[in-house]
Amino acid sequence: MRPFNRTTRRARLDAPGVAERAPGLEQPASASEAAATRDLVAAAVPVALAVGAYGLSYGVLAVAAGLSPAVATLSSIIVLAGGSQFAFVGVLALGGNPFAGAVSGLLLNVRYVAFGLAIARALPGGSLGRRAMDSYLIVDESVALALGKAGPMPRDPAARQQWSGEVVRRFRVVGWSVVSAWILTTAAGAYGGRLIADPQVLGLDAAFPAGFLALLAPWLRTPRGRTAAAIGVALALGLTPFAPPGVPIIAASLGGVIALWVPVRAEHGEATT
Amino acid sequence: MIILALVALAVGTYLMKAIGPFAAAGRELPPWLDRLSNLLPAGLLAALVATQTVVDGTSLVLDARIVGVAAAAVAVALRAHFGVVVLVGAGVTAGVRALGWG
């Protein structure tokens, strides 16, 4: 569950916008079951591996921040949103109030409203249990890969039905791969991380900001993202000496709000808009 | 208290994820909300990077972490994989500490 990676941001919400995609790139309707399965596995395995590396570091860092290995593992089962979990334990690591950590995590997760709406176009709906399970499987990778690979939604009803089927199958397979990789590797990192005597000697405290920086990178390549980031840094560091731990991070989300209103040139380079 | 906060995070996150599948098949977000949800993480993540690099308690300090994060920034600029960036950040920080600073 590598949040905000480049693939995700490119594919995010804009499946209808990628009309320039060459039609020849799509799977032919007659693709055999075996080929379709191979294709799905080929999509899911590298994603699960990448998520696994991320989950391992989360497990180690969560325990370094003071969670018990059991609670760290539980957090990956019930929250299932990597960036917000890192933010949560990051606030704890600074000695902040856990609820301030939860609020920063929730602010990071607002984007899942958009992800959920994006995938809802393809979902069949169905029973409450089915919908609940599909909601659980919404992570960056499942939505991005499902919508990104399938291309834009066709207008023709028959083609649309096939499109939905393909999107939903991919969404669920990648979703389950990511979920299981995330939970298992969190547990491995959390229980294995105990073997590490002093996290500081290994520089683990710097692993947090390094990871956040990697997640931030896609925004730093857009003017508005840079503006939001700069305001966020100024607010957070400016408030740190005065505000309780955790509060400066929440205040920094105003960076995004302010950046919405700042006139920026060369906007067409931005990911979402 | 940590558990309660974690449950709050989990429930809130799940509710946001569930809006699409439960309530809105085939609807789009209003553009301003879409843009805001895209920009919110930038401010938050940048703040997390900054505070975790130079904050200790409630004071600003310069120690080995800033060297490690600077090295991680180079890795990011070179488009290294997430895991590599984290390893560079931690490894360089550990190296600087082993040399006796911060």
The ordered H/E elements of chain B are: HHEEHH
Class by alpha and beta content of chain B:
mainly alpha
What percentage of residues of chain A falls in helices of 4 or more residues?
Answer: 55-70%
Mean pLDDT of chain A, to the nearest integer, reads 80
Distance between the termini of chain B: 32 Å
Q: Work out the count of structural domains of chain A.
A: 2
Instruction: Give the low-confidence spans of chain A.
Output: 1-29, 266-273
What are the low-pLDDT stretches of chain B, counting only 5+ consecutive residues below 50? Answer: none
Number of DSSP E strands of chain B = 2
| Biggest sheet layout of chain A | none
Order of helices and strands of chain A: HHHHHHHHHHHHH
In angstroms, what is the radius of gyration of chain A? Answer: 20 Å
Average predicted confidence as pLDDT of chain B: 87
Rg of chain B: 19 Å
Shape of chain A: globular
In which range does the helix fraction of chain B lie? over 70%
Number of strands of chain A: 0
Structural category of chain A is: mainly alpha
How does this model look, in words?
The complex is a heterodimer of chains A (273) and B (102). Chain A contains 13 helices and no strands. With 273 residues, chain A is mostly helical. Chain A folds into two domains: 6-206, no CATH class; 221-273, no CATH class. The model of chain A is unreliable at 1-29 and 266-273 (pLDDT under 50). Chain B has 102 residues and is mostly helical. In chain B, 75% of the residues lie in helices and 4% in strands. A two-stranded antiparallel ribbon of chain B has the order 1-2. In chain B, strand 1 and strand 2 form a beta hairpin. Chain B is elongated and about 55 Å long. At the A-B interface, helix 2, helix 3, helix 4, helix 5 and helix 6 of A face helix 1, helix 2, strand 2, helix 3 and helix 4 of B.
Keyphrases for this structure?
A: 273 residues, mainly alpha, 68% helix, disordered N terminus, disordered C terminus, B: 102 residues, two-stranded antiparallel ribbon, 2 strands
